[in-house]
Write a structure and sequence with these properties.
With 368 residues, this protein is an alpha/beta fold. The protein has two domains: 9-46 and 275-367, Alpha-Beta Complex (Aspartate Aminotransferase, domain 1); 65-271, Aspartate Aminotransferase, domain 2 (3-Layer(aba) Sandwich). It is built from 13 helices and twelve strands. Strands 2-8-7-6-5-3-4 form a seven-stranded mixed sheet, sandwiched between helices. Strands 9-12-11 form a three-stranded antiparallel sheet, with helices on one face. A two-stranded parallel ribbon has the order 1-10. Helix 2 (49-58) packs antiparallel against helix 10, helix 3 runs parallel beside helix 10 (261-271) and helix 11 packs parallel to helix 13. The protein starts with 22 loop residues before the first helix and ends with a helix.
Length: 368
């Protein structure tokens, strides 16, 4: 029998993250070709050509450790958003920054408030440190933020409030007036975490940017990423914007070389490729219209979103729909992992990919 140290008790409540199935795995297991993945909110246009060239140019320097301070990337992001470089921290994806936040601020028994359904890594990061997640259901068919209920969940043990907007998996957003109200209500020893992984896709002018709170030294950190609209998911580059005091706290737990050199070079190049950014945003705008119309023909209505994906009730068991679509070479995300077993989450793709998804879904629903 294996002998080993006893595992920490708090880990017993952690459910390992289950990522979307990779295309290569599906093709290998199913014996298929031309599989399309519409499950992980990736950019179907791929990375910026400027980022690809930057990686190629950097390839012969991979024997050298990366710049632990991300100096040039930090300077470029600071300039783009009119920030001070010391207001920024970079991570191996924004997931790592979520871990930093709980490592720094959460003692066993401390609490964080978050909505449900939302990004599962908030619960994971809290459980990892022995913290307690307080989940507040989103409201109604539009999965709207009920900010008064969020505030009602705050107590003397609350250290963090996670606001994912646009929210994953629903695509819904918090309104500026709601966030303003919350910021006026909460004690200043609670840090509000604005997870803005999809903010570049937002078209609604009523969505708060969040940086104005940081400029005024409110206890707020905005998390952003190069994984989504910038198309660099495989490189894992996320960043946080916060008052200097918060950044200094987080740097206490950041390892020296947490963002690799290739990732830094690609992100720096992608940041300046406005053409790729606009193409990526336009693709999503058109895809949203295409899928909304196509789903309506099937009698389905997606949740109104401001992201690069939609969440839709297909009125069938999502695992059955997922498997049947998988066998036809279309990968989507099941809703059961978010607590909604008849929903699927679908990443917006190219016009051709969207057509194939709609055709496949129609065939699958007709047989189930």
């Amino acid at each position: 029998m294996l002998k080993k140290p006893e595992m920490r008790k708090c880990l017993e409540e952690i459910k390992p993250y289950v990522p979307g199935k990779p295309v290569e795995e599906v093709e290998r297991e199913m014996g298929l070709t031309n599989v399309i993945k519409m499950a992980s909110n990736e950019n179907p246009l791929g990375p910026s050509p400027l980022a690809v060239k930057a990686m190629q140019d950097k390839a012969n320097k991979m024997h050298i450790y990366p710049d632990g301070n991300c100096y040039y990337l930090k300077e470029a992001v600071a300039k783009k958003f009119n920030l001070k470089p010391e207001q920024l921290i970079f991570g191996n994806g924004s997931d790592e920054l979520l871990s930093f936040l709980t490592m720094v601020y959460i003692n066993p028994g401390d609490e964080a408030v978050m909505v449900d359904p939302s990004f599962s890594e908030y619960v994971f990061a809290m459980r990892l440190m022995g913290g307690i997640p307080r989940q507040v259901p989103l409201s109604g068919e539009k999965f709207a933020y009920d900010i008064e209920k969020v505030f009602a969940a705050v107590n003397e043990r609350t250290k963090l409030i996670f606001i994912c907007s646009p929210n994953n998996p629903t695509g819904s957003i918090i309104r500026k007036e709601q966030l303003d109200w919350l910021m006026q209500k909460i004690p200043d020893n609670i840090l509000v975490v604005l997870d803005q992984a999809y903010i570049e896709y937002v078209e609604d002018p009523d969505h708060p940017g969040g940086l104005d709170y940081i400029e005024k030294d409110y206890p707020v950190i905005a998390l952003r990423t190069f994984s989504k609209i910038y198309g660099l998911s495989g490189l894992r580059v996320g960043y946080g914007i916060a008052p200097v005091g918060v950044i200094n706290d987080l740097n206490r737990v950041r390892e020296p070389f947490n963002v690799n050199a290739m990732a830094q070079a690609a992100a720096l190049a992608a940041l300046d490729d406005d053409s790729h950014l606009q193409k990526s945003r336009s693709l999503v705008t058109q895809a949203r219209k295409q899928l909304t119309a196509g789903l309506a023909e099937l009698g389905l209505k997606p949740v109104p979103d401001q992201a690069n994906f939609c969440f839709v009730d297909v009125k069938k068991d999502s695992k059955g729909v997922f498997q049947a679509m998988l066998e036809k070479g279309v990968i989507v995300r099941t809703g059961d992992i978010f607590g909604f077993p008849t929903f699927i989450r679908v990443t917006y793709g190219t016009e051709e990919q969207n057509d194939r998804f709609l055709k496949t879904l129609s065939e699958v629903l007709a047989k189930l």
